[in-house]
Amino acid sequence: QVQPVESGGGSVQAGGSLRLSCAASRYTLSSNCMGWFRQAPGKEREGVAVINTGGSATYYADSVKGRFTISQDNNKNTVYLQMNSLKPEDTAMYYCAAGSRVCTFNWHSYNRWGQGTQVTVSS
């Protein structure tokens, strides 16, 4: 199984935007759910946004609703996370995850993970 590959992280000031990309295999995008998770130093990994890649239903953590958008491009086998109005508390390593049959924020349900991309938001 091919692991997802993230890109697009970086450093921005509060209020800025970033778009993360997760390149995956066509098989991965055709199977169930993919999600973006994040983990800050000393904190638990948390779900940010999840998408049903078969039906395009999307789900968001309360902390990012209205600011983040998850989407997919089947032609490019890529899932995106558009992050607007970034806050310092969004600073974390962001991971793309795949392979869950259920669209959930429980990260244990996902069996394929990318290496992560760092997002740093300064005040």
* Cα end-to-end separation: 40 Å
The helix/strand class is mainly beta
User: Roughly how much helix do the residues carry, as a percent range?
Assistant: under 10%
The biggest beta sheet reads:
7 strands, mixed
Low-pLDDT segments: none
- Average pLDDT metric: 94
**Structural Rg:** 13 Å
- Silhouette: globular
Please provide the ordered H/E string of secondary-structure elements. EEEHEEEEEEEE
Helical run tally: 1
List how many beta strands DSSP finds: 11
- Strand proportion, as a percent range, falls in over 45%
Write a structural description.
With 123 residues, this protein is mostly beta strands. Helices cover 4% and strands 48% of the residues. It has one helix and eleven strands, in the order E-E-E-H-E-E-E-E-E-E-E-E. The strands form two sheets. Strands 2, 4, 5, 6, 9, 10 and 11 form a seven-stranded mixed β-sheet that branches. A four-stranded antiparallel β-sheet has the order 1-3-8-7, with no helix packed on it. A hairpin with a 6-residue loop joins strand 4 and strand 5.
How is the topology of this model organized?
Layout: E1 5-7, E2 10-13, E3 18-23, H1 26-30, E4 33-39, E5 46-52, E6 58-60, E7 68-73, E8 78-83, E9 92-100, E10 112-113, E11 117-122
Parallel strand pairs: 2-11
Antiparallel strand pairs: 1-3, 3-8, 4-5, 4-9, 5-6, 7-8, 9-10, 9-11
